[in-house]
Amino acid sequence: MPPPAGVTGAQLGRRQWVYAFALVTSLFFTWGFAYGLLDVLNAHFQTVFGITKLQSTLLQLAYFGAYFVWAPFAGVFMRRLGYKKGIHIGLGLYSLGAVFFWPSAKYEKYGGFVGSTFVIGCGLSTLEVAANSYIAVLGTPQYASVRLNFSQGFQGVASFTGPLIAARWFFTGANATSLGTVQWVYLAVAGLGVALNILFYFCDLPEITEDALAREIHEVGLKADEGPFWKQYRCVFGFVAQTAYVGAQVGVASFAVNFLVDQNVGYSQSKASQLFSFCQITFTVGRFVGVVILNYIDPALLLSFYGFCCSLFALLVSQLPGYGGVGCLFALFFFESICYPCVFTLGTKNLGVHTKRGSGLIVMGVGGGAWFPPAQGGLADRANTRRSYLVPMAGYIAMTIYAVGLVIDQAVKSGFTIRNRDELSAARAAAAAVFPPTALIIDAPSGQAKDSEGSEGGEKRASDEYLEVA
Question: Considering the entire predicted model, what is its pTM?
Answer without folding.
Answer: 0.76
